[in-house]
Amino acid sequence: MQKKRWFGFLVIALLAVAVVLVNKYYLPTLVETEVAKADTVQQAVVKEPSILYGMVVDNYTVIEDKIKRNERLGDILTAYNVPAKLIHQVSLISRSIFDVRKIAPNKKYTLLCNQDSAKTAQVLVYEPNPIEYIIFRFGDSLKVDVHKRDVVIVEKNVAGEIRSNLSETIEELGISHELTNKFVDIFGWQVDFQRLQKGDKFKLIYEEAQVEGQSVGIKQINGIYFEHFGSPYYAVPFDQGDGVDYFDDQGRSTRKALLKYPIEFTRISSRYTMSRFHPVQKRWKAHLGTDFAAPVGTPIRTVGDGIVEEAQYKSNNGNYVKVRHNGTYTTQYLHMSRIADGVRAGTRVRQGQTIGYVGSTGLATGPHLCYRFWRNGVQVDALRVELPPSEPVKKDHVADFNKVKDDLIKKLEAIPFPEQKQDPIASL
């Protein structure tokens, strides 16, 4: 009986010790653990700051919009309570960095405004193109900075087959107009792109410039295979020391002294002819030019280097520019909506430079470019004239060229054509 009593006391004592130990060591540790977990959860739900154009914008009202027609920077800033004196200072300070008078319609801008009823602008960001953006700050001190996004160059390829015409194929494949124009320029004097045959095929390897995963332009074409009427054509880029030019698989230049088309590849609405019924004058007469139908404002480019002989307005021609390229060739561009800034008589222009914009000034029923061509002082059909080719690969560069060509042909051969389907063709 005495032993049982002592055993009971021992059990009670042990339980008491256990309670003390739990209270002293386990419970505080458990509490600390739970508190730590709560702190972790609280930290996890803390909101990350919102970053825009490299700035924390949590304490601002962010307003995004596009420049409207005839809208000026001052109009925007006045509407958001920026003082007129400060606006004037902005226009003066920024002129050496970015001329605010050159803001253009449909370009994006972003305002960072105070979070109050007045919504006074503290920062304006203007994006003239996908790569650059200009930050105007109106805080404690006026500041204007130009920033550039990182540009990544990605090599891509595309293959297609002409179903009816190049324009339709381009649309189906989602090829950009910029890439199309570079393609047409390279083969412009070898292939009549207005008369492609159904079944013609092409493969393109090109470099695309991307910003944040979005295409912002074509850097260059790295190779072309083009099958026209069953005949193969190659374009191999090669630099002989004077910059990249394009050559066929025999080392002959694919280019001529002048570009074939003075405008982005588009529909020819009227060709050179000695007898055409004039849509305005309502009589038959010679049409000594080639008409390219295009929307108002489409850039017009000079087909070669030269000196501007005339840049003015005349009743029949409307706004026009005439360029003398050398002692043999002269070209003229009619019915412009306007002549490009800085283009005037005596100006030197470079091949591919924009000299004006499509319009319907003068004797014209709709927007188009009338392109005229002189050889030795006589007007001729610009699309039929035979121009001398550029220089072929030089003898001391032939071995290097052949290696570049062989490597390129292997890459082109590895690109499959789209499978034959009755549905629209698919791009790679």
Automatic annotation (TrEMBL):
Residues making up the signal peptide according to the UniProt record: none
UniProt keyword annotation of Membrane present: no
A single GO BP: proteolysis
Cited InterPro entries: Cell_wall_metabolism_enzyme, Csd3_N2, Dup_hybrid_motif, M23ase_b-sheet_dom
Domain Csd3-like second N-terminal: 155-272
Pfam family, any one: Csd3_N2
Stored SUPFAM superfamilies: Duplicated hybrid motif
Cofactor: Zn(2+)
Keywords, ordered alphabetically: Hydrolase, Metal-binding, Metalloprotease, Protease, Zinc
Localisation: Cell envelope
GO cellular component, one term: cell envelope
Domain M23ase beta-sheet core: start-end pairs: 286-381
GO molecular function, one term: metalloendopeptidase activity
Protein name: Peptidase M23
Species of provenance: Chryseolinea soli
Record lineage: Bacteria, Pseudomonadati, Bacteroidota, Cytophagia, Cytophagales
